[in-house]
Amino acid sequence: MSIVLGDREYFKDVKKIKFEGKDSKNPFSYRFYDENKIVLGKKMGEHFKFAVAYWHSFVNPGNDPFGVGTKSFPWSKSSDPFQNACDKMDAAFEFISKLGLKHFCFHDFDLIEEGSSLSESEKRLEKITSYAKEKIKESDINVLWGTANLFSNPRYMNGAATNPEFDILSVAAAQVKNALDVTIELGGENYVFWGGREGYMSLLNTDMKRELDHLAKFLHLSKDYARSQGFKGCFFIEPKPMEPTKHQYDFDAATVIGFLEHYGLDKDFKLNIEVNHATLASHTFQHELQVAANSNMLGSMDANRGDYQNGWDTDQFPNNIYEIVESLLVIIQSGGFQGGGINFDAKTRRNSIDLNDMFYSHIGAIDLFAKGLLITEKILNDSEYSKLLQERYASFDVGKGKDFEDGKISMKDLYQHASKLKEPKLISGRQELFENIINRYI
Ligand code: XLS
Ligand code: NI
Ligand code: NI
User: How far apart are alpha carbons 323 and 97 in whole angstroms?
Assistant: First the structure.
């Protein structure tokens, strides 16, 4: 069957977004994102593999617990699910290429509506995958990561891989197998597991140990299957503490790393850190990135922001330059992402109903990262920041301090060293000075 690609233009008002420099007042231009500009030794476009999230931008029409969707997408008008899926994909590829980006991320049933049976869903996925392959071939847009939606269908109300019913776990596995097949077929660079319903609502009816063992087995089987099919990319776990469950097993970076190491999954899995999930776990985003980097597991990020006045995953587009600069300091100093990039897991507000709002939101966020990178370069290259940080630990660079780091010293040696000291001199942490240096460049 030969595939005919759609030729409708969905975003007629908007031409390709170009870099126009920081004085530009054109809302459809980049003021800082200059793809080919060399910053910190490589092109901006190489630092940032930006990806558009299919679900937020092309699927979710803005429904919330109090009301139905507000957004009427011109690509969701057909009664035929395959036609809808093709229209949606045409719109997505047009949008991504007008932004000058090269990646997108998806859940299986973002691509096409789930069928009423496993085999019907499988058929639908096969059809849209063929269509997507053609779209990918005629563009330079690729899949940053794929995933399976194991949280929307009512069958997952008690979890997917951690469901107390074996039959449901099997259906989830079949779904992951299919999502892996699609990701591999489309040349996806990575695969994500976000366990929205892998956790509990009440510990009273939950055998936590058994559920965690099942989750680990499920991940092992998924990984082994993907590897057997030739998948070379990374698997990412995306931590989140809660919502929709009361307690999600992948609570935060430290919890996930402990889990991966305990179950022997740490060689294949890395982390996808999301801003709003970090803050829900009462951490800063920077903290979560650093914890992942410490274990060599900083795989990718889901960029967004929460709301300081409420406590849920509002998935707003990022706009906080302090947060982004401090995060980039962690990312750059730890050598960048392993395999992943920056996925905009963010949605325009429910009352932002124009198609142009999709552009404003992405342009603003992309420019924020670009501006943040330029600031980070100055902090690292022109300021005393790195030196001050290093100096703080200088007593471990020489003498007994170095011996301690090198493991050449015993508890008794430490005792003897301490016995010879008067009360040690106190040294200021100078937090305000560090903060002022960051502000000097912002
Ligand atoms: C939800 C998650 C989800 C994952 C992909 O909070 O962020 O969107 O990124 O399943
Ligand atoms: Ni996410
Ligand atoms: Ni989220």
Answer: 28
On whether both 222 and 288 belong to a single domain, the answer is: yes
| Alpha helices by DSSP H, 138-195 | 166-185
SS3 of 391, please? helix
The count of domains in the chain is 2
Do 313 and 411 lie in one domain? The reply is no
- Select from 56, 60, 302, 314 the residue to mutate for testing ligand 1; criterion: most ligand atoms less than 8 Å from CB: 302
From the list 103, 107, 287, 362, the catalytic residue is: 107
Structure tokens at 380: 């690292």
> Tokens at residue 374, please?
């330029």
Confirm or reject: Cβ of 313 under 6 Å from ligand 1: yes
pTM over 0.90: yes
Are 168 and 155 a contacting pair, CB within 8 Å?
yes
Return d(Cα 248, Cα 19) in angstroms, integer: 41
Dist. CA 300–CA 411, nearest whole Å: 40
Phi, psi for residue 335 in degrees, rounded to 5: 90, 10
Domain that holds residue 70: 18-382
DSSP tag of 56: I
What pLDDT, in 10s, does the model give residues 269-323?
A: 999 999 999 999 999 999 999 999 999 999 999 999 999 898 889 999 999 999 9
- Tell me the residue type at 4: V
Say how far apart CA 113 and CA 80 lie, in whole Å.
10
Cα–Cα distance for residue pair 121/285, rounded to 1 Å: 36
Phi, psi of 274 (to 5 degrees): -110, 135
